[in-house]
Predict the structure.
Amino acid sequence: MLQQIPQPRVTRQLSQRAVFEGLLHRGPISRADLAKATGLSKQTISEVVDAFEQRGWARPVGRTSGNIGRTAVLYELCPEAGYVVGVDLGGTKVTAAIADMTCATLLEVTEPTDRRGGKAVLDQIARLAAKLARDVKAHPSRVLCAAIGTPGVVNKRTGAIDLAPNVPGFDELEVGGLLKDKLGGHVLIENDVNLALLGEIWQGRARDAAHVAFLAFGTGVGLGLAANGRLIRGENGAAGEIGYLPIGGDAFSSETRSHGALEYEIGAGGVLRRYRAAGGGAESVKEIFERLAAGEQLAAKIIDETARIAALAAAAVAALFDPQLIVVGGSIGGRQEFLDRLQAHAARCAPRPLDICASALQNRAGVVGALAVALNWLHEELFGLPDLPGELPLPAPKVLSGASR
């Protein structure tokens, strides 16, 4: 038998949710226009708006002009009512950004990942979050949520991050709990490629795709999957750990066990290793691409081999998941000369024609996805419906001038 939900409480929640959505997507807006947009009575709108003002969630910002008759007060959400921090942690760099209640990205910073790993990286994340809050003059108590994207998956039993060899020491720490102690507020941990996919769904190539995959080729190799806007995580949260596909290298070799056969072969370390083994002397994958642009045949051969193996991975994703769209990103995947080769090889080996495109957000996809997750949590925490769950949609993100640094 279904439990009866007290109607007055649900009605109040629905009204607050509707007014919040109206302010978020249409503000500044008058009470009369809120009533038209939501279908609520003017009395209900007035009660909810007054309550929002008292709680510091909404504020008047002027009056209508240019209309015949009386003017009306316009209302908007208070940006400073709550802030979130999003962090995209990679093996070589970490990007952090802060956004306010209205989804405006205020500031973004990037720096090399602390090579010591473990607790040193957690301290680095806490320092960046504090700096962002300080620089936008947000009181630390108003930073209500932080979402962290990291390679690997969260171990449900220990809270450690497993399958993340590029961030040493994370498999020995209860990352979420330690970060909560350092940051305060709510902390969410998510796979970095999943966040890149959510970034593309919010503001990138995947906005109109029902079934979409994000393939990341860079320091590591990763995959994010979403159906109807929802991530597919699997039983243990490890869905998409595509670096462990037995493609490209010997999956039974002890050398490939920690990173996986595919990542060992076409992650940045694998690309550089194969180039050097063939007689090249580059110090980085970036240098290999520079030599490719200069016409070097060895660089072209290695990049083409890498794209060919990556195409096998894309074909496997197509066979197993049947996506409408595959978005490709990462420090290697985001290069047009790589993408062109990947598309050509995929056309020859995939079970059907694939729509493979470059990430629109490029190296910002992960941090945008982290902000999306944190903002969704904040909005649901304040205005969601615990009795009738359902996500509140985010508006198109607003990036204020000078947000990147």
